[in-house]
Amino acid sequence: QVQLVESGGGLVQTGGSLRLSCTASGLAFGDYAMGWWRQAPGKEREFVARINRFGNSRFYGRSVEGRFTVSRDDEKNMAYLQMNSLQPEDTAVYYCVADSSIFTPVPGRIPSRGDYRGQGTRVTVSS
Question: Which of 1, 49, 51, 113 counts the most CB atoms within 10 A of its CB?
Fold first, then answer.
């Protein structure tokens, strides 16, 4: 059974930082790109970041580029999202996804939502 478990969410002030973690089990981790999506109250789910299965290609949503960094540790079956310079508009539930699809990073394109998704971790940025 595939499980993705996010952690690291919480309450932070504007300008602060958080590091989200995603622990994966039940899948061949190295076969999947890992991604992060988020959903704010009353809004559509939004793509945040993606790292390919080899760890050498990263792609970000326009609203987070330059502030967030996605990474992975295949020895630990974990993915991470380092979030800096957080703003109130970053408030959302953040989801980790495992994605087996092939994706070519091109500005304006959005990756798939993945084969598997975690339950999410809530991030609240206070103004």
Answer: 49
